[in-house]
Amino acid sequence: MNNLKIEHLTERTKNVNELNNYINKVTPEIIEILKDNLVLKKDYEINKKCKDLIYSKVLNKKPSDIQCWFECSQYNIILRFKTCFHTELWSSNYIEEYIYLTQNSTEWSEKERDFIVVSTDFKEFTAIKNKTFKQVLSTYKNIAKQEEKINLMKAKLNDIKRGFNSYLNK
What we know:
Layout: H1 3-37, H2 48-57, E1 66-72, E2 76-88, E3 91-109, E4 114-122, H3 133-161, H4 165-168
C-alpha cells in the first residue's frame, strides 16, 4: 500500500470519526425536540416550530464542514449528514450518513384520495461506534486479500470453461 493511499485512509478515518461524533452528539437532542414538538404537515414535512427549535438549539453550533438536513416522506423522517475532505490538490471525497428517526404508519383516506399518516413511531438511536485507523487498515488489507482470491478463482474458472463456451452457455 503506497503512502498516498495510507494518507487518504488516515484522513478518511479521521473525518468519518468526526462525523460520527457529531451525529452521536446531536441526534438524541433532535429526537427529543421532535418527540415534544413534531406535527407533520400535509406534505409530510416537519412543522416550522419544530424545525426552528432544532436549528436554533442544536444545529446552529454545527461545524462548517458538515451539512445536515431532513428527508421527510409519508413513510419516515431521515436525518442526513454529509461532509467532505480533500484528498489531493483539487480532489475531494464525500462522506454521507443517514439516521432513520421515525417510522410512519399510513392509511388510505377516501376524503384525501391518498394515504395519510396516522401515527409516527420514533426509532431508537444507537450511537455509531468509531473505528481506529488500525482497524480500518486491517479491514482494507483483508478485503484486498479476498478480492485477490476471487480474481484467481475467476481466472481458474475461465480456464476451465475455455473451449466449452458454446456447450455451457445457457
